[in-house]
Amino acid sequence: MRRAAVPAAPRRRIALVACLGMAFALAGCGGSGQGGAAAGPQTIRVGVIPIVDVAPVYLGMQRGFFEESGLNLELSSGQGGAAIIPGVVGGSLDIGFGNNTSLVLAASKGLPLQVIASGVYSTGERGEDYVELLVGDDSPIRSAADLAGKTVAVNTLQNLGDTSVRDSVRDAGGDPEAVRFVEMPFPNMNAALAGGEVDAIWQVEPFLALAKAQGHRVIASPLVDTKPDLMVSTFFTTEQYAGQNADVVNRFKSAIDRSLTYAQQHPDEVRRIIPSYLDVPPEVAAEMVLPTWDPRIDRETFDVLVDLGTRDGLLEEKPRLDELLG
């Protein structure tokens, strides 16, 4: 398979820790105050990440699910949940998509976030997940236990990537504290691994399919190691926006739940929609491992992530999950 082009790196990540003070100060701006259905399709600003996880959003837009719910989505791309959260709290975005570790971290800092819909789940199958830990084909590293003293690329530091990798290292009998992490956009990871800049990468589809095609080798499935049916990401907003725009939030949830179900039932359509928003050819999309899309909200996932974040020293205080999960 020829090496496919990958999209340019998403715009620069706004570090969550650096933005917490600003985001908290702007929390009062988080809602538009426009409740109820609009006369025509109502535009809402949604922050997404340019990865396979959000394929149901594009598929739902194409199938008209959001339009039928009276919504027009204005999409904005960010590198990860840590970059999208400040936009939602600050009011430049109405709804965001992000991994649940980002939400747990933000909630532990007191940010008024509320989960409104499921996002994506792991496949639960080791070696066949849509997020994998890889090394170069000629690397002497055979398992996650061999990563002590090595460098691993993740898309966001002190987040789901490094905590789940540490869990894989721990499960394999290695020293998770001896692993070094560097932050890097997903599209840049494969070349960095091939060039010897890093020893391993925490890679997601569709870049995972490209990595495999280039000969990179899977040594662990960190999400599965963390929890076999891990709910990786969700859609969220602020408590204020949800309170002032309950009808909009309910219509969005209805449309995205419908989109998630449709995507899970129609994988061929998912593969066809992916090249429309990611710069990957159809033959790469055909080889990708698709995640699991399920509308249910899994409370147990958040309990696991809180425990993991506490063990790895990410959380100074445990978040109030009842408030975060509405």
Could you outline the blueprint of secondary structure elements for this entry?
Blueprint: H1 16-25, E1 42-48, H2 55-63, H3 65-68, E2 71-77, H4 81-90, E3 95-99, H5 100-108, E4 113-121, E5 131-135, E6 151-154, H6 160-171, E7 180-183, H7 186-194, E8 200-204, H8 207-213, E9 217-220, H9 222-226, E10 231-238, H10 239-244, H11 246-265, H12 267-273, H13 282-287, H14 299-311, H15 321-324
Parallel strand pairs: 1-2, 1-3, 6-7, 6-8
Antiparallel strand pairs: 3-10, 4-10, 5-8, 5-9
Helix pairs in contact: 1-4, 2-11, 5-14, 7-8
The CATH top-level class label of the largest domain: Alpha Beta
Distance between the termini: 46 Å
Tell me about the largest β-sheet.
5 strands, mixed
> β content, as a range?
15-25%
Write the CATH fold name of the largest domain.
Answer: D-Maltodextrin-Binding Protein, domain 2
Query: Mean pLDDT, rounded to whole units?
Result: 88
| Overall SS class | alpha/beta
Q: How many whole angstroms does the radius of gyration measure?
A: 19 Å
Number of strand elements: 10
Order of helices and strands: HEHHEHEHEEEHEHEHEHEHHHHHH
Q: Which residues form runs of ≥5 with pLDDT under 50?
A: 1-38
Strand order of the largest sheet: 2-1-3-10-4
Work out the helix count: 15
Number of domains: 2
Q: What's the overall geometry?
A: globular
The CATH architecture of the largest domain can be named as 3-Layer(aba) Sandwich
What is the fourth-level CATH superfamily of the largest domain?
A: Periplasmic binding protein-like II
The helix fraction, in percent, is 40-55%
